[in-house]
Write a structure and sequence with these properties.
443 residues, alpha/beta, FAD/NAD(P)-binding domain, Polyamine Oxidase, Chain A, domain 2, 2 domains, six-stranded mixed beta sheet, 18% strand, globular
């Protein structure tokens, strides 16, 4: 077609100086598969495709790899995970093995302590702490009972009315799922595997994920604009030309899909679009606050939680103190309140988190505070949120999103995982399994 750039031309052009950083091995001139996204799912898939004897190229819109799992050390001079932080369900999590083999330092966080406060900043009594843990147990029982019986309803409809309920809802909803309890499906909760045992990585979980990129044909700074799957193969349109391949694997977030950032030709079928719409992006904003070495009376790796008014579940910022001995705490703000603060801006979000911490540990914290920041997942056009959460009544959405089209358009990522959704290991596993499925079709 007139004006169209052949795949050999565009792939050769991508290696030119200034045309996008190329990582790992040389790019194939005519790949079997184009993988969209160099997060855990995309890199896992690429490794599996190569192992299966297929060629591929991974195109990434960002200037870095890792997607929503990213460690950086520039801001604080210490590694900070902007996204995923835990190796969850470590006995079945492939990143536990990778971390150990790579010489990373794993710190068990399964039985971390809790610094529990009343709303006024006073320490909770032993009786109140016991009530807090009873509320956790009651909430988990209620959600499990509904999910086990096949009820696909909003978790808020089964939430027990007990003391500390709003506090537990804040953790389980806004700060775990990234959405509030009325947006969580009890069936999806029941289908999810346990997240214990869990580990921190002292060097950062994002640093472990980054090791997946070794020797992979990845090109950075290449946003995908169109995916034409109308012909025999696929044509992936980028600002630097069109890449033709036999198949395409899409690993972008449902936020990107729902925003229409990639135009599919022909349009995705209605049921596929509905699947993406039924897994809207939740938000967990992390707010790391750096201090001068003072520990402010908080235990290393401890959860820092305070009582939330029962009529305001989710409106809070809870913390993890001094993870693996670093000199920062990181706040967690999610759900609707997280979106609200994100719209208010970085300064407002950091100020809110610092105010909550000062209320708990005292004004001396200000003397030891150096600086802070808030992660930008809410406003990032390459994510539009942190991770997907299935709407109540839509438990088939994950499977529908994962279903391939015409044996040449495939989907993977945390939102397609039915057992470990919203987690980086879920993304990794979906990439691996989808790539094996592709290999059976394409070889």
């Amino acid at each position: 077609m007139r004006g169209e750039i052949g795949r050999r031309t565009v792939l050769a052009g991508l290696t030119a100086v200034g045309a996008g950083q190329v990582l790992g091995q040389s790019l194939p001139s005519d790949p079997d598969v184009v993988v969209i996204g160099a997060g855990a799912a995309g890199m896992s898939a690429a490794r599996t495709l190569l192992h299966q004897g297929l060629t591929c190229v991974v195109v990434e819109a960002a200037s870095r790899i890792g997607g929503r799992t990213w460690t950086e050390s520039t801001t604080f001079g210490q590694p900070v995970d902007h996204g995923a932080s835990w190796i969850s369900g470590a006995t079945a999590n492939p990143f536990a093995r990778m971390a150990r083999e790579g010489g990373f330092t794993l710190v068990d966080h399964s039985d971390a302590g809790t610094d529990l406060f009343e709303f006024d900043g006073s320490r909770a009594s032993a009786a109140e702490e016991e009530a807090y843990w009873r509320a956790w147990a009651a909430m988990e029982r209620a959600m499990a009972r509904a999910g086990r019986s096949g009820e696909d309803v909003a978790a808020s409809t089964v939430a027990p009315k007990v003391p500390w309920s709003a506090t537990v809802q804040s953790w389980m909803g806004a700060m775990d799922y990234g959405v509030d309890l009325d947006q969580i499906s009890t069936a999806d909760y029941w289908d999810s595997a346990s997240d214990q045992p869990s580990y921190f990585v002292r060097e950062g979980l994002g640093a472990v994920v980054a090791t997946l990129a070794k020797n992979l044909p990845i090109v950075l700074d290449i946003p995908v604009q169109t995916v034409n799957w109308s012909g025999k193969g696929v044509e992936v349109g980028t600002p630097r030309g069109t890449i033709r391949a036999r198949a395409c694997l899409v690993t972008v977030s449902t936020g990107v899909l729902n925003a229409g950032a990639i135009r599919f030709i022909p349009e995705l079928p209605a049921w596929k679009q509905q699947a993406a719409a039924d897994i809207p992006m939740g938000l967990l904003t992390k707010v790391p606050l750096l201090f001068d070495g003072a520990r402010l009376g908080l235990g290393e790796n401890n959860w820092v939680t305070y009582r939330v008014p029962e009529d305001k579940p989710g409106e809070a910022c809870f913390f993890i103190a001094w993870p693996t001995g670093h000199d920062y705490v990181f706040g967690n703000i999610g759900g609707r309140f997280g979106w609200e603060l994100a719209r208010a801006g970085q300064a407002a979000t950091v100020n809110y988190a610092l105010e909550q911490l000062v209320r708990l540990v005292g004004s001396d914290a200000r003397k030891h505070f150096i600086k802070g920041f808030a992660t930008d997942w809410a406003l990032n056009p390459l994510t539009h949120g942190a991770y997907g959460a299935v709407r109540p009544g839509s438990t088939d959405a994950r499977e529908n999103l994962a279903a391939p089209l015409a044996d040449k358009l495939f989907f993977a990522g945390e939102a397609t995982s039915t057992s470990v959704p919203a987690l980086v290991n879920g993304a990794y596993l979906t990439g691996h399994h989808t790539a094996k499925r592709m290999a059976k079709i394409l070889k």
